[in-house]
Automatic annotation (TrEMBL):
Protein name: Guanylate kinase
Entry EC number(s): 2.7.4.8
Keywords: ATP-binding, Cytoplasm, Kinase, Nucleotide-binding, Transferase
PROSITE patterns xref list: GUANYLATE_KINASE_1, GUANYLATE_KINASE_2
InterPro entries from the UniProt entry: GK/Ca_channel_bsu (IPR008145), Guanylate_kin-like_dom (IPR008144), Guanylate_kinase (IPR017665), Guanylate_kinase_CS (IPR020590), P-loop_NTPase (IPR027417)
Species whose genome carries this gene: Oceanobacillus piezotolerans
Amino acid sequence: MKDEKGILFVLSGPSGVGKGTVRKRLFEKATDLKYSISMTTRNRRPSEKDGVDYFYKSTEEFEALIAQNELLEYAKYVNNYYGTPRKYVEETLAKGSDVFLEIEVQGAMQVKQNFPEGVFIFLFPPSLEELKNRIVNRGTESEELVLNRLKEASKEIEMMEAYDYVVVNDQVDHAVEKIEAIILSEHLRRERIAKQYKKILEAD
């Protein structure tokens, strides 16, 4: 059955909702998912590693990739670019492996245009107050940037309707369990299984 293409899973949500934490916890567990590392022009935080958390690029490098159509999606967010390398995603899906993206909301909307068959999961904060606390407690942003991120977050939450699933990130482990359940249920969808069995019956 491995000649089936993999499924693209996209985890997205407002800045500060904990996308990175949830994704890391998901990948600490035994999983066949392949993680597509995003590129960004933002400064590396002290705990982050190049090629693990992001590929860190200069603005010039990033704009050259945009011009060459090498990105599946990209967005400029609070003066920094974020994007997903196209080649890795397409090649991995073609091999039959599932790919997992963790990206900003604007980027997720572009992926939806390019890959409408993807599965889109919106990570939701327990409350806006909690979201504000998470952004402030990071200690990596100025007050002005915190306010910008919160304004942006309110707009992004309104875009929730474009997603297939919503997971509230009240506790990281609970959020991960829900995402695992989504992945399993997508593999059990009738139309996916019917396609595979049709091939088996034709082979007989």
